[in-house]
Design goal:
Structural class: mainly beta
CATH class: Mainly Beta
CATH topology: UDP N-Acetylglucosamine Acyltransferase, domain 1
CATH architecture: 3 Solenoid
Order of helices and strands: HEEEEEEEEEEEEEEEEEEEEEEEE
Largest sheet: 8 strands, mixed
CATH superfamily: Hexapeptide repeat proteins
Number of domains: 1
Length: 186
């Protein structure tokens, strides 16, 4: 029975490789992606080992916009789980450390539209980018928005329904309704 389970897992890995994984810059062993997915420019994405992605992920990298060129890179560490309907958008750099848990409906976005020209629509204005880092062993709850330039330390817990606009130190807990980092003693 164990032999059969291992062969079925090997077949699943092969099907995932044929369908998606050959398009990535790098993919570790035992990664699982559940459909439906919306993935673009995967040549800028590296997956570690044992990455588990639930249905509905939208992962995009932006290389060109309005004549501007970007060098995006998404690095996802080993043992990362990404929940349903997450959205990861990268024009600069997003690094997710090992053993990070990301809840459902989370948005991680390393770029923002400017609004300097009051007469132009915001979506038509130039974008600015700042890399995002999420430290190892961090847990991110459901419905969290992580904005450009944020660095979340290691071993943090980010509660649900929070907008992270400032960096969070190691061993912190951030929760709603008034998000603020509370450093836990270690």
């Amino acid at each position: 029975m164990e032999f059969l389970k291992n062969r079925l897992r090997d077949v699943r890995d092969l099907v995932n490789y044929i369908r998606y994984f050959h398009k990535f810059k790098k993919v570790g062993k035992r990664c699982v992606m559940s459909k439906p997915l919306r993935l673009t420019n995967l040549q800028n994405v590296e997956l570690g080992e044992k990455v588990y992605i639930l249905p509905g992920l939208r992962m995009e990298t932006l290389e060109y916009k309005d004549g501007a060129q970007f060098n995006p890179l998404i690095k996802i560490g080993n043992g990362v789980t990404i929940g349903q309907n997450a959205h990861i958008f990268c024009a600069s750099g997003i690094t997710i450390g090992d053993n990070v848990g990301i809840g459902g409906n989370v948005m991680i976005n390393d770029c923002a539209h400017g609004y300097a020209d009051l007469d132009a629509p915001i979506q038509d204005q130039p974008i600015s980018t700042k890399p995002i880092e999420i430290g190892e062993n961090t847990l991110i709850g459901n419905n969290v928005l992580i904005l450009p330039g944020v660095k979340i330390g290691r071993n943090c817990c980010i509660g649900g329904n929070v907008v992270i606009a400032k960096s969070v130190p190691d061993y912190s807990v951030v929760s709603a309704p008034r998000p603020r980092a509370v450093v836990m003693p270690h």
